[in-house]
Amino acid sequence: MQIFKTLLRVRHYEMDALGHVNNAVYQNYLEQAAIEHSEHLGLTFDLYQQLGGVFVMRRVEIEYLRPAVAGDTLEVTTWLREMRGTRAYRQYEIRKQNQDDLLVTAEALWVWVDAKTMRPRPIPDMLIEKFLQIEKSQVVT
């Protein structure tokens, strides 16, 4: 299992009426972390186009534990729990930078689909090998 970490700064326009990050914004954070993880491995959008497919989020389950506010720097940690067939199950944890308390935990089901038909296709072996390699954690800023 490869763990990937990235830092994201909370912006003012992402707040809700209570002054916390709007719950819907967390899905954007999850998607951004997944994209950065992919790019870190050299799996760019251009490569996906060459392979004729793309990952799309099919389902997400988010547990909100503590709030974040504008100006916070969040550490988003993600890893692939399982990849097989057309599906990739990705886990997430979000914390404030340099803190242990979890703000959010999440799991998303990503599906590899044909870029033209948007129908599910088996994930190419090359992607599975890249994503599931063992590597030390990386922090990207």
Distance between the termini: 22 Å
Number of strands: 6
Count up the domains: 1
Name the CATH architecture. Answer: Roll
Structural class: alpha+beta
Radius of gyration: 15 Å
**Considering DSSP H and I runs of 4 or more, what fraction of the residues is helical?**
10-25%
Give average pLDDT, whole number.
93
Tell me what portion of residues adopts beta-strand conformation. 35-45%
- At the fourth level of CATH, the homologous superfamily is Hotdog Thioesterase
Question: Strands of the largest sheet, in order across it?
Answer: 2-5-4-3-1-6
List SSEs in N-to-C order. EHHEEEEHE
> How many DSSP H or I helices?
3
Give the class-level CATH name. Alpha Beta
The coarse silhouette is elongated
**Biggest sheet statistics:** 6 strands, mixed
Low-confidence runs of at least 5 consecutive residues:
134-141
CATH topology name: Thiol Ester Dehydrase, Chain A
Keywords:
141 residues; Thiol Ester Dehydrase, Chain A; 6-stranded mixed β-sheet; 3 helices; elongated; disordered C terminus
Describe the structure.
The chain is of the alpha+beta class and 141 residues long. 23% of the residues lie in helices and 40% in strands. The protein has a 6-stranded mixed beta sheet with strand order 2-5-4-3-1-6. It is elongated and about 45 Å long. The model is unreliable at 134-141 (pLDDT under 50).
What's this, in brief?
This protein is an alpha+beta fold and 141 residues long. The chain has helices spanning 23-40, 45-51, 125-132; strands spanning 3-9, 53-64, 73-84, 87-96, 102-114, 138-140.
